[in-house]
Design a protein that fits this description.
globular; mainly alpha; 13 helices; Growth Hormone, Chain: A; 308 residues
Length: 308
């Protein structure tokens, strides 16, 4: 074996950086907040003596804030540095979560979640940029894959335990707990050696990506897919609690089941590599549509609903 072959082998076997696991935790914190309101919304609505749809406006506000900041603010990550932007976003997220926990009215909760969305829309691109920057040569996919498991972690642990916490203590304790986690993530980030790589020149225009061939159909497909998901997920907790008479903590089982399925889907990544994303996506969307139809048909059964 030549020296160049030995170097290539050692490089390919380089371990995933420890910083990647901190970034995984950051994703888990953001994911926990973005998905936690659905399971605990019956308790929140009862606390404010209002309807579930009124409370779910807060979830819409979070999504609006996320998309707006991702579109108009995240483009400055290259100029200011991913670490600096991520630190600011985590601080803003912690403040927004504390405001959510202390919200005296639904309107205040909506405003706090809008602020949390603005933070998330900056944090996520900064996290992905940092993951790509710290990845050893040849381990880029593996490093980013580790970071993405934060979404599974947020579903399996964060959201599931939050539903139990809301049942045992109060829904406000859920947002307070996630705020503490955001503060811990910020503290950990400040203690790391993650360096900022800044680029000079003007920031790209917000809508410049629309010129990329094929991006518009992908955006439409992604928008439709996520609208369907959040439209069902957001009200599933209310259905299980008020429709089927289950405790709020039982809503955590639905989140746990979804998180487990999300994680298991990673086992099929090789199929995408072999067949190509263009061929797999139509089948995947069709399968999701079938699941939603089956979910509607099985909505009278707690077990079948969670299994779907």
């Amino acid at each position: 074996m030549t020296n160049s072959d030995q170097v290539a082998t050692l490089t390919a076997r380089a371990p995933i950086p420890a910083l990647a696991y901190l970034l995984t935790g950051c994703i888990a914190v953001i994911g926990s907040n973005s998905l936690v309101l659905g399971p605990i919304v019956p308790a929140v609505a009862a606390s404010f003596a209002t309807s579930v749809p009124a409370v779910m406006i807060a979830s819409a506000a979070f999504g609006l804030g996320t998309s707006a900041s991702a579109l108009f603010l995240a483009r400055y990550i290259d100029r200011l540095g991913a670490r600096r932007m991520l630190q600011g976003a985590l601080l803003l997220l912690a403040i927004a979560l504390l405001a959510s926990a202390a919200a005296p009215t639904v309107t205040t909760l909506v405003a706090a979640q809008l602020l949390a969305g603005l933070a998330a829309g900056i944090a996520m691109p900064a996290i992905y940029a940092s993951a790509a920057a710290i990845a050893p040569p040849g381990r880029e996919s593996g490093t980013i894959g580790v970071v993405l498991t934060g979404w599974t972690l947020s579903m399996v642990a964060g959201v599931s335990l939050s539903a139990v916490l809301a049942d045992l203590l109060h829904w406000r304790a859920v947002f307070a707990a996630v705020a503490v986690l955001a503060a811990l993530a910020l503290t950990g980030l400040r203690l790391t050696s993650l360096s900022d790589v800044r680029k000079s020149g003007p920031a790209p225009t917000p809508l410049g990506a629309l010129a990329v061939p094929g991006i518009v159909p992908l955006l439409v497909a992604c928008g439709a897919f996520m609208t369907a998901f959040y439209g069902v997920y957001g009200y599933l907790g209310d259905h299980l609690h008020n429709g089927l008479g289950r405790p709020v903590s039982a809503n955590g089982l639905a989140a746990l089941a979804y998180g487990a399925g999300f994680g298991m889907a990673a086992l099929l990544d090789g199929v995408i590599d072999r067949l190509g994303a263009r061929r797999v996506m139509p089948f995947a969307y069709l399968l999701v549509a079938v699941v939603y139809v089956a979910l509607a048909a099985a909505s009278g059964s707690v077990g079948l609903t969670i299994a779907m």
